């Protein structure tokens, strides 16, 4: 059975950084599921058809990381038929041996609810905005408004809203370096790979 690590959290919390590092550490496959929604939004036209006909070429566009692509993604991500069109691809990806790390908004809650490790990565709004502003060379106040609008839309939608799974481990990276955040995630994965602690009676 492949080992699945589900990572969710709000925009620019450090999900992708941690997911890539976990995949490299354990030799697992990694899928940034946000790219599926960014590519669908960027395609234009009917978003349901765009999601149903997504190709690897669509995912390789160079303009998908922009704030505009993020906004377009979160609008089309609220459409249930768009989400439904992307489920099978994500589940097939997760089923690859020896394991897979998927990061997004609904991985632990909808796509892989049986994943043995679910991380909910978060950080304060201000810190996330500062990190994304540095990454994109953009204004911090503009990024703060963008992230907050997107987080609100993602959390309030009826289908697969952004929220921690009941059994998710919350990792607040506000005051963690990248190296420390990765080390915590690896420690959680090592713990989860050992399986649940079964207490046997001494008798
Ligand atoms: N713990 C951290 N400390 C400082 N910067 C971080 C940390 N984690 C991520 N970053 C930086 O913040 C930005 C957003 O991180 P990313 O992993 O892309 O977030 P997400 O996938 O949640 O959108 C990137 O520029 C990344 O290098
Ligand atoms: N599993 C996922 C992943 C992304 N998304 C949507 O896609 C948008 C872009 O996701 P992303 O992960 O690329 O965004 P960042 O966290 O990198 O800013 C999000 O704001 C969500 O609206 C989603 O609905 N479900």
UniProtKB/TrEMBL annotation:
Its main location: cytoplasm. It is found in: Cytoplasm. It comes from the Bacteria. Keywords: ATP-binding, Cytoplasm, Kinase, Nucleotide-binding, Transferase. Residues 5-40, 53-189 form the Cytidylate kinase domain. Its EC number is 2.7.4.25. SUPFAM superfamilies: P-loop containing nucleoside triphosphate hydrolases (SSF52540). It holds the Pfam family Cytidylate_kin. ATP binds at residues 9-17. One of its GO terms (molecular function) is kinase activity. CDD domains: CMPK. Belongs to the cytidylate kinase family. Type 1 subfamily. HAMAP family: Cytidyl_kinase_type1. This is Cytidylate kinase.
């Amino acid at each position: 059975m492949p080992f699945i690590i589900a990572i969710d959290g709000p925009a620019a919390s450090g999900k992708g950084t941690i997911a890539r590092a976990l995949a490299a550490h354990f030799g697992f496959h990694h899928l940034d599921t946000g790219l599926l929604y960014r590519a669908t939004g960027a395609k234009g036209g009917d978003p349901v058809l765009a999601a149903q006909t997504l190709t690897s070429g669509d995912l390789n566009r160079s303009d998908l990381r922009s704030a505009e692509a993020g906004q377009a993604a979160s609008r089309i991500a609220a459409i249930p038929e768009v989400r439904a069109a992307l489920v099978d691809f994500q589940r097939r990806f997760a089923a690859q041996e020896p394991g897979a790390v998927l990061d997004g908004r609904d991985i632990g809650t909808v796509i892989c609810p049986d994943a043995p490790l679910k991380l909910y990565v978060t950080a304060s709004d201000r810190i996330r905005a500062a990190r994304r502003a540095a990454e994109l060379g953009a204004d911090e106040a503009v990024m703060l408004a963008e992230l907050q609008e997107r987080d609100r839309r993602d959390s309030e939608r009826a289908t697969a809203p952004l929220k921690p799974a009941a059994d998710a481990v919350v990792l607040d990276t506000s005051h963690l370096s990248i190296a420390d955040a990765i080390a915590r995630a690896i420690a959680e994965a090592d713990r989860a790979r050992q399986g649940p602690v079964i207490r046997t009676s001494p008798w």
